[in-house]
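User: My advisor asked me to double-check a structure prediction for Hexosyltransferase before group meeting. I don't want to rely on an old file, so could you generate it fresh from this sequence?
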Amino acid sequence: MPALSSFERKLNKHATTFLIGGLFLSLSVLFYFAFCSLPCDDVTSGLSRADLRDAQNKAFWNRNILAPSRDLVYPEVVFIMSAPDNLMGRDTIRETWAKDLPNTVLLRFIIGTGSLSTQQHSNIHRENFIHL
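Assistant: Sure, here is a fresh prediction for Hexosyltransferase from the sequence you gave:
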């Protein structure tokens, strides 16, 4: 067996200390990143004064298609993904089984609006205004 240098002997002697220290450091970093990404209690942090003023205005939330309902708490939420041009499908759902949902269930349609024309955007906002 080859002879160990003094550095290797010291390293072997303190291996457990290095292992525990490295483990503690790794867990500390993991906990920091886990808790750092949690949402803040103050939901207004990072908003400009104009955005905060708009958010306090109920009309702002009424004109926003993805607005949360601040008045009621829903224990159940149903999200339905739908194409922007599928108005008949959304109306069919509203007229059939969605009519029978209790008031404690929130129904929302998820519609991708990224590459829509101005006319399609206008149609979706009009539909949202009619059905909310």
